[in-house]
Amino acid sequence: MKHFLTVLMCLGVAQSGWTQQLDQSEASRYWLDGFARTWFTSDALVQEQSNSGATSSGWNLLDLNPHVNPNSEMEVFAQIRVLNEFGGFFGQGTQVDVRQLRVSGVLKNKVKFNIGDIYLNQSDFTLHADEGEVADAWGHAFEAQRRLVSYENFFKGNRWRLQGAQANVTLDGDRGIERMVLDGYLTRPLGSRQVSESIYTPDRVMAGITSAAVLQRGWSGELHHAVLADLPNSGTTEYNVLNPVTHAMLHKQNKWKDVLVRWTAEGGWSNHAWRIRDLANGDLDSLIRSRQGGFAGFKGHFVGLDSSWQGHISYREVDPFFRSAGAQSKRYDFSETFSPSRYPTVGSEEAMRPSSLFDLMSDINMGNQSISPTLMSIAPLFDNVMPFGRATPNRRGVELAVEKFYPEVKWKFDGSRFAELTGQGTTELRLFRTVGFGFEWTPLASSGRDFRLSVHERLQHTKRGGSELEALDLLTSNLTVSAEMELLPQCSIECSGRHAMGNGHEFLNVRSDLGELYNFQRVELNTQAWMTSVGVRYDLSKDVLARLQWNLWGQDLELENQSRLRASQVFIVISATL
Amino acid sequence: MKKTTIFLPMATLLTFTLTLGCSRPDAEGPAIDELFGVFEVLDSLELTNLSPDFSIGETVGFSCEFSKPVDWTLSIVGMETGSAKTLQGFSRELLPEQEVWFGNCDDVPFFGAEPCQVVLSIEGEGQELTADLVVEGTKVYDGIEVASFDDGIPSGALVWHQDGGNMTFELAQDEALQGGQYFKMGGRVNWDWSLGYIDIPLDMSAVGVGPDDFYLNLGVLGGLNGEFATDQYVNILLSESEAPFDDNPSNNASDIFGGDMEVYKYQIRPVDWEGWRFFDISYSDFEVKSEGGNNLREPSQIRGIRLGLQACPFNSGNCPDNGNIAARADLDYVTFTEGIPLLEQE
Questions:
Q1: Which helix (H) or strand (E) element contains residue A570?
Q2: B 210-249 → A contacts, CB under 8 A
């Protein structure tokens, strides 16, 4: 049912285009691509006394993408999934569903449009999916797991997958304005749902518009506006969110000696409020907890003209009450209610296992695909400084980054110093410092076989003064290492490792359903979590890839009889791009 | 270049001034020094009424003040019935106008006129505060009474049961949940699921709420000497049929639950406990049994209720133990409420 309207729209648009281009060749009208994957895992606890029995799971899937081009300006795309879980008999474990559906096209050679399942990224403060805690500076570690989680959760770059419509037009100008882009979208992150016979959740819509202009002499500007809102008349729930956000940017690009420089000044504003429904008569009659917040920043981005280095320096200030659902929703669910797919309970007392590094890297169910109207839970062990990306509220500070490229080596360094603008539970302000350093070595081997080693370490330090209870001093370290060595043509050994370690404690915010901060949870972070993998990658052909990996992972626990969990996983994946 | 580097910081500063110049609070959220500080009871537990008579609408308010916000649980336990009522919260103090007991209970048995102990426990602090009170009069619940059985079988009701062994479709006085009498349903029928039922005519035309807000509340007594028949349950039918309630005397009880009539069904299944349990069932949770009407659960159209006992028959071969045990699911205090379930009434 959720795709019913989209199907109707697609069919309607397809039909109208179809009839216009009857003379096109059949071959160009239809074409297929897709993706197939076989995935198998076998998990076992590694215990000191004895090894536990292994549990295994997996599936075969085929995502078949029919593309229909009724004319040269339009395409209807669908993704049909056939999934067969291992262990299902006589079709019991087999699912067939429409995973994506979209109509794309160009009207009058001017207006590009998409209807259906679309991927959107507007700006860092309006609609943007920050990669967050899984971010790897070099992008190679645990590539197989990351691709699996991303693919299953529709994570594509910094874009959110939403259902709705989007259109944009580019206009070429003269005189002062060289080019102008207008882009708009209307989506529905959450559809109205019947909870009971007379109770409905409202339709939640996210809409936005962007205008960008490229001016002469290196000047350009962007204006973004987005709003998340529960439609007033579509539901019966008491609280209905309203969250408009505006973001403006001004850029100036010029050359300075051997450097291409791009300066950016930006600022914006948000409002976050709840419209209250009078349950007696169904009307929306008041607005509560209306909070305004602004942000502003200045950034200089530098690129060497010979492309041998790049870097940036920036200053940013984001108000404590700046709220942007589209930019602050997290990719991963760190709430206490999330139950990991592997070993959800541990110890003789069957305690709930808190999610950790292994789940973050490999648990498909930990991915979040929805826009959250309130701030989501964070994981300070992995990121305590910018848990909501650049749009993290209550921050003021500077950051800089430099990246240098040599023929065999690349290195990068980044650092930041931020402070809170408003204390949380105290008038004392947290002070955040981040230092990151990494290198990638790709020697030019005389044997002609490729080798790569990537290393990145990021340290975060959070400090707050005040009384003995208020004070905190938290240091976290996240070290990521990955290497790949070609053994034979198309056959490589892959190794990855990540180690996260904390020392200190932090107070996590406990917020009400309406986002109000009403309590703190003190969490001890004298802990560590790790994940390593070693395996073989074999490229059967250009489009078919097989991987066999052995993973060892673990985390510290705070149980009476168990202080550490260690487990292993055999991971086999065969994927084919069709 | 020079103009640019001057202009942009100026523009940024101006933006800062415009957007962020407004005053911010010094701190957000409750004070950590208080939340994680030393716990003390600043004002001990006090009750606004030590001998409440809930039958005339009296209530009991509770007050207490701590040095910091805490998770607290306040429980009231009847010393004779064992009935209990629990209040919970996270706050720095209990205010008597907010923390109020209206004489209701979390589950049956109901409170009687009896002494009660009040215990206020603080999570994570290992401290309990206690007080005593005496209930002088019990709470009178609002609702549309279907059958309390205290004055006998409801007027116009029809009782039918099989000719099995030890059949007990009758009134009894020994273990009433509320008042002095209840309705027993029990016996042994080896050849059929249905042991018997009681059909009660109803007139709900004055009801003005929808099915989500219309609740059937009833007490069910299960077990016989600690044993339960396999898969025994209470089968509840509500009919919106406009047919006469008892037009055909040769029928097994009422005529409005036929296969071609508008009838909705709910099962309390299995009944596998000993003693009384109290249920509240929203009308919207009833499923369509027979599609003889518009399939819209309309409380004001309800014309009758059937409360029956069913159990797995021994002869089916699926429940060999039922050859030696009688089924039992007794009923009491069958009441409809509008808006909220009976036990949640204040």
A1: strand A564-577
A2: 210-213
Nearest to B131 by CA among B65, B76, B73: B76
Amino acid at A561: N
Per the structure block, which two tokens stand in for A263?
Answer: 């300066």
pLDDT along chain A (578 residues), means of 10: 41 42 60 93 78 80 93 92 77 78 93 96 95 88 92 94 95 85 94 68 92 92 95 79 95 92 94 82 70 93 94 95 96 93 86 92 94 95 96 96 94 97 95 97 81 96 95 96 92 96 95 90 94 94 93 90 89 92
Q: Which residue of B has its CA nearest to A198?
A: B212
Q: Which CATH superfamily is domain B33-134 in?
A: Immunoglobulins (2.60.40.10)
Query: How does DSSP assign A81-150, residue by residue?
Result: EEEEETT--TTTTEEEEEEEEEEEEEETTTEEEEEEEEEE---TTTS----GGG--SSS-TTHHHHHHHH
Cα nearest neighbour of A199 on chain B? B212
The distance in angstroms from the start CA to the end CA of chain A is 29
Domain B144-344, CATH among 2.60.300.12, 1.10.10.10, 2.130.10.10, 2.60.120.260: 2.60.120.260
Within 10 angstroms of residue A513's Cβ, the number of other Cβ atoms is: 9
Contact flag B31-A295 (C-beta cutoff 8 Å): no
Q: What is the pTM of this model?
A: 0.77
Structure-block tokens of residue B160: 């039918």
Question: Which structure tokens are listed for B113?
Answer: 């006129």
Q: Decide if A453 contacts A441 (C-beta within 8 A).
A: yes
Partner-chain contact A294 B12, CB within 8 Å: no
CA angle B210, B211, B217 (to 5 degrees): 120
Instruction: Return the SS3 of A10.
Output: helix
d(CA A127, CA A157): 13
Q: CATH topology for A110-577?
A: Maltoporin; Chain A (2.40.170)
Question: If you measure CA to CA, which chain B residue comes closest to A516?
Answer: B29
Chain region(s) in chain B for CATH 2.60.120.260: 144-344
Q: What is the DSSP letter of B259?
A: T
**Buried b or exposed e, range B177-197, using 16+ CB within 10 angstroms:** bbeebbbbbbbbbeeebbbbb
- Enumerate the CATH 2.60.40.10 domain ranges in chain B, comma separated: 33-134
- Three-state DSSP state, A189: strand
Among the listed residues A382, A312, A337, A348, the one whose alpha carbon sits nearest the alpha carbon of residue A135: A382
**What are the tens digits of pLDDT across the range B26-40?**
899 999 988 888 899
- Which of A196, A317, A319 has its CB closest to that of B284? A196
Q: CB A17: neighbour CB atoms within 10 A?
A: 20
Q: In this complex, do B20 and A427 lie within 8 Å of one another by their Cβ atoms? A: no
Pairing type for strands B327-338 and B214-222 reads antiparallel
**Pairwise CB contact (< 8 Å): B19 & A295:** yes
- Chain B residues with beta carbon closer than 8 angstroms to that of A319: 19-20, 24
As a 3-state breakdown, chain B gives helix, strand, coil percent values, each rounded to 5, of: 15, 40, 45
Residue B330 · residue B146 · CB < 8 Å: no
Q: Does A221 touch chain B (CB under 8 A)?
A: no
Cβ–Cβ of B15/A263 closer than 8 Å?
no
Question: Which residues are registered as beta bridge partners of A554?
Answer: A530, A566
Q: In terms of CA atoms, which chain B residue is nearest residue A268?
A: B19
Instruction: Tell which A residues from 500 to 529 touch B, by Cβ distance under 8 Å.
Output: 507, 509, 517-520, 522
